[in-house]
TrEMBL record:
It comes from the Bacteria. Residues 10-283 form the Tryptophan synthase beta chain-like PALP domain. One of its GO terms (molecular function) is diaminopropionate ammonia-lyase activity. GO terms for biological process: alpha-amino acid metabolic process. PANTHER family: DIAMINOPROPIONATE AMMONIA-LYASE, PTHR42937. InterPro entries: DiNH2opropionate_NH3_lyase, TrpB-like_PALP, TrpB-like_PALP_sf. Keywords: Lyase, Pyridoxal phosphate. Its cofactor is pyridoxal 5'-phosphate. This is Diaminopropionate ammonia-lyase. It holds the Pfam family PALP.
């Protein structure tokens, strides 16, 4: 990670002793905590009760205090906001609510840095843009930033887009099914191996972009993400080896099913996906939960059910 200079002098005096706060499933909170520490500020990060110990330790390892909330991710979001109001902390969230919209927009704008870099790499390969983008979604901020980025660049000529969520936390998929333009939540434990996507309440700012611009919303069971992890780590001959966590790998699993599963033929044809397509996937996490990673990649947990297995010759 890039290092920042610890703030001092008159600028530090103007800012005072800010405490930055966030709710997280892992990556976002760790990033907020690291950035706060680099600039000499304290941070407090809220996680839900199903957050793995390794993710908590990673956040603590960059200097944050971690608070475990007895609930799911959305409960952690609500709790950190309430406590921040009481203690005067500055919340840095990638999801918005009434009266809190500017910072989430900044976070979404920050995501587009990755896409600008991806476009530079594509240009180096002689490609103007991908033909398709599959992007994972929790509250929808990364997905909206990705699809909105390409919409702004290419308008009607933008890549086909697919938003991918866990079946057990598919708030955007549910919102799309209802189809009245409003965001809708899903409730429950949101217990999915895709911890970074286990969100029940959509970001309303992100939802507006997705409702207007996304082509397809898809909900995937955990074994789709697990298959993506295994394929990334043991690829076909000539493909690169990648370490990807559950939330980062689900789009590869989804792409493989869209391309190869007989029951997905109509979707494949509607998206104009074929052997000549140039598909962009974003690996949003590495081995952030080693126990879960080893369980999937080494031990073969969450195997593909027999009726959904697809065999591909090397």
């Amino acid at each position: 990670m890039r290092s920042f200079k610890v703030l001092g002098g008159s600028l530090r005096e103007q800012l005072g002793d800010i405490v930055f706060a966030a709710a997280t499933d892992g990556n976002h909170g760790r990033g907020v905590a690291w950035s706060a520490a680099q600039m000499g500020f304290k941070s407090i990060i809220y996680v839900h009760k199903l957050t793995s110990r390794s993710r908590i330790q990673a956040i603590e390892g960059v200097g944050a205090k971690v608070v475990v909330v007895d609930g799911n991710y959305d409960d952690a979001v609500r709790q950190v906001y309430q406590d921040a109001q009481q203690h005067g902390w500055q919340v840095v969230s990638d999801t918005a609510w009434e009266g809190y919209e500017e910072i989430p927009q900044w976070v979404m704008q920050g995501y587009t840095t990755m896409l600008s870099e991806a476009q530079e790499q594509l240009a180096g390969q002689g490609l103007s843009k991908p033909t398709h983008v599959l992007v994972q979604a929790g509250v929808g901020s990364l997905a909206a930033a990705t699809i909105g980025f390409y919409y702004n660049l290419f308008g009607a000529e933008r890549p086909w887009s697919v938003v991918v969520e866990p079946t057990k936390a598919a708030c955007l998929y549910r919102s799309a099914l209802i189809g009245d333009g409003k965001p809708y939540n899903v409730e429950g434990s949101l217990d999915t191996i895709m911890a970074g996507l286990a969100c029940g309440d959509p970001n309303p700012i992100a939802w507006k972009i997705l409702y207007d611009c996304a082509d397809v919303f898809a909900a995937c069971p955990d074994y789709v993400a697990a298959k993506g992890m295994r394929v990334y780590s043991v690829p076909l001959r000539g493909d690169p080896f990648l370490i990807s966590g559950e939330s980062g790998a689900v789009t590869l699993g989804a792409l493989m099913y869209i391309m190869e599963y007989a029951g997905a033929r109509r979707l494949r044809e509607a998206l104009h996906l074929d052997r000549d397509s140039q598909v962009l996937l974003i690996n949003s996490e590495g081995n952030t939960s080693p126990d879960d990673f080893r369980s999937v990649v080494w031990e073969g947990s969450l195997p593909v059910p027999e009726q959904y297995k697809i065999y591909v010759a090397d």
